[in-house]
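Batch job 17 of 40 flagged for manual review because the log was empty.
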Amino acid sequence: MEKITNFVKLILYIVLIVLFGKFAFVLFNSTELSNQTVKQEIKVSIPKIIEYVASISSDNRVNKSKVEIQDIKAKTNTDIYYKNLNELLVSQNPTIVKLMNVEKTKWVGDKEAFYTLIFKNKTPLNANKFKVKVNNDKVKFKHSNTATVFYSENLSLKGNKSFHYPLVSVSELAKHFKIKKEKILGMGITPNIPNEISKKAIVKTKYGTSSNVNATPLFIEYSYETIFKQKKTNGQAIYIYINSN
């Protein structure tokens, strides 16, 4: 745009020089042309000069607007391209964490065993800021004394790795359900009673043997953040197998 402006100035200077040269020639070499004629010539020529310069300036403004519109379109197309590229990258690289099982584990330093959730990060990308909570604000289980790192705000699950999370001790669970610890036979991720659990509840009667086990749900929620800053939250029921005999 600076080059165009300089060009306009140059044209204006040339036009002015030509006109003044013409008028000077007329004044000094023509006896037939009166002062009135010269004045009239000037009156006619100056508006033409102004009109010409204005037309060039208008064209410059139009060209500048076209360039600005082209710049906006180019930027918009670039933004759309990178947006689509980012969406493609995210869709092809998901972060998936699944609850695989529940085990009864004795952690070193704790007085009793904890029911421990076993998670698996099924993708190569890390799951950051991993958290687990019981989906009931009124339920507050005591944490493991030695596994306090699991309850931090910056817990990260490595890609393609399993992770054990101590959820609740046996005594805390019995206290929550208001039953004796001996009545809790186990915990799992399915309402179907496993055979090894049913065998623990077998009792003999005069009619033979029987086993009466209830699968009582406890709802949990686990959440994490992907490397793309997406927040993922999953709700799931785990089941406490309680001897009802």
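Reviewer: the log was empty due to a logging misconfiguration, but the result itself is present. Confidence is low (pLDDT under 50) at residues 30-34. Unflagging and moving on to job 18.
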